[in-house]
Structures are given as C-alpha cells and as structure tokens.
Specification:
- The chain is mainly alpha-helical.
- The protein has a domain of about 35 residues.
- About 80% of the residues lie in helices and about 0% in strands.
- The protein contains 1 helix and no strands.
- The chain starts with a helix and ends in a 13-residue tail after the last helix.
- Keywords: Membrane, Transmembrane, Transmembrane helix.
C-alpha cells in the first residue's frame, strides 16, 4: 500500500503543475489578444496621420532644390 502512495504523490504533483501551467498559458493568451486589439486600434488612429506625413514628405522631396556636386561642407 505504501508503494501506491509514492506513485500517487508524484502523479498528483505533476497534475497540479500542469494545471498551474495551463492557467498561466491562458492568462498569456488573453494578454496577447488584448495587446493585438490595442495595436489594431493604434494602427487605425495613426493611419491617416501617417499617410498625411508621407504626403508632406514626398512634397518636400519634390520641391527640394538640387545642389550641384561640390566639395561638400568643410569645417574650419
């Protein structure tokens, strides 16, 4: 009877450990889902501003006056 008890103790501890790991994994899963929703909300909010900034950047690059190649900037 004693041998059966020693077998049952590690099995019970292993099962308890798996339950703890499953709980932690579920919490991580919920956190990742929440983080994904937050990222999507942020993308939706920043999307129009990002495209406006890209438009302004392309306008600035198009209006830039080309400089003739020279020696560059020299420090004194």
């Amino acid at each position: 009877m004693t041998e059966v008890t020693w077998v049952a103790v590690p099995v019970a501890l292993g099962s308890a450990g798996l339950v703890v790991l499953a709980y932690a994994a579920f919490r991580v899963y919920l956190g990742v889902r929440r983080f994904g929703r937050e990222l999507e909300r942020t993308r939706q909010r920043l999307g129009p501003k990002q495209s406006a900034l890209r438009g302004e950047l392309s306008d600035l690059q198009a209006a830039r006056i080309p400089q003739p190649p020279g020696d560059g900037v020299r420090s004194s």
